């Protein structure tokens, strides 16, 4: 009978249970996705040049475990808030505490285990999907990655079984110890703690000062090294906490003093709600802001590495394709590239000399890339006259020759003298296309054909990377692992943290319902109530998001040694995060409204 009553209660709250279940599924799925990386040392070592990357990911796994634990605690609190009145009614009807404890244990544990199993399956699908998206759409080179990983599955299962087992025991113990009257009434309204104005002012100054020190150290990371990182980490974490515990509450107190603002509509109610919420949410919002910054930073840096592949590739060669002995190549394949520049230079060679026609280079100068300071580069053109007299210039042409030709002398002749040489004529064809990335597959085919026509280019002989495609392959292999990990981790952390914030808000919705119902009874219009809760929840989402963005903007200074322009194209990851964050905001508003707002009466 008790089981039937429990199932009936769960059925009546099916929407809330679906939200809870889906949230737990997402938590398990993300944890599994991360573990497929963190527990796969072969993947980490083969896709990174940083020797400590395995240790870094183990630390990341611990961090994600802590976040997951916090997430489940808030989700569990949401569950208990929903069900405690039902349990109180069961006890009033004569149910024994021991039976209630068993019922709570089974509900919590089996909901958690079911969510874990479904979450692992979801994680496998998501891992495979992310892998396909990043590898094929972004043309990354990623090795030793498999979405199905037994070690990750075992770690995820053990972790969640332990957590839900402990949560089930705690829930059962907590509920049976509470008096029936406490179970029947909703959670008490939080009592606002009276704050010392002096302490609030000191916290405000401390928060701003600590963030300033942390941001300054990020700018000076190249000067102070690891010391700057340690100082920045400590000061920014403390500064973030003081911002929420002091600065935001200080600003709200100032807003409440403005009669025009506070007395307009339900603004005073919203400001009062935020005051006691922020005191309760200080640690949560601080964590959300910090990990939001890490997540957004991971995606931003990942995209930065993607751009770095293109920039470093462009710095290797002006020409997108170099064809040695191009007389062996059917030009129909070349025309498929729709080249914007297609130049061929005739050449002949003896045992110790390579001959060119000087007038061909005067008519169509050789285009080269010259490196500047700070990783910058510029493009120049060398005429035949310059190549004939400047050794540095002739070395640029030498890099485009076959390995066996690079050690020979270069001689530039007139057309008649060149024609008088008895050796066979070959050609060096240099091609530029409109967009290297979109023509990559066709260029790869011609590079392979060029190696087939010139066997000495195979293996490790072509160390000069005269082919832009070869340079692209090297840089893509070097940076793809970082880009893959950045996307993977950034999106995982964002989903988890937004869900944490959502459940933290929903877990207190039952106590908030009383206040909204009181406002409704004294005549507050429904649209005003909806506006008030949107502002309240919007502030709780907006403030950590803005602070996290500031952390990222200053934190990117630390990557200037790795990325030439870390802020270029920053709008894209910011846009992705903003869209996902707004979706979570609207989902939270919808769920919260369904709990706290009075039901609309049908006319």
Kindly describe this structure.
It comes from Enterococcus alishanensis. InterPro entries: ABC-4_Integral_Memb_Prot, ABC3_permease_C, ABC_permease_BceB-typ. The protein has 603 residues and is an alpha+beta fold. The protein has helices at 2-12, 14-38, 41-46, 53-92, 97-137, 150-177, 180-184, 197-219, 221-224, 226-257, 259-262, 267-314, 331-335, 358-363, 384-389, 391-398, 415-420, 440-453, 468-507, 509-521, 526-555, 571-596, and strands at 321-324, 341-349, 353-357, 366-371, 377-382, 409-413, 426-432. It folds into three domains: 1-185, no CATH class; 192-310 and 473-603, no CATH class; 321-466, no CATH class. Strands 1-7-2-3-6 form a five-stranded mixed sheet. A hairpin with a 5-residue loop joins strand 4 and strand 5. The longest helix is centred in the middle third of the chain and has 48 residues, at 267-314. The chain is elongated, with a radius of gyration of 32 Å. Residues 186-191 have low confidence and may be disordered.
What features would you highlight for this structure?
3 domains; 70% helix; alpha+beta; transport; two-stranded antiparallel ribbon; transmembrane helix; transmembrane; 7 strands; 603 residues; single chain; five-stranded mixed sheet; ABC3_permease_C
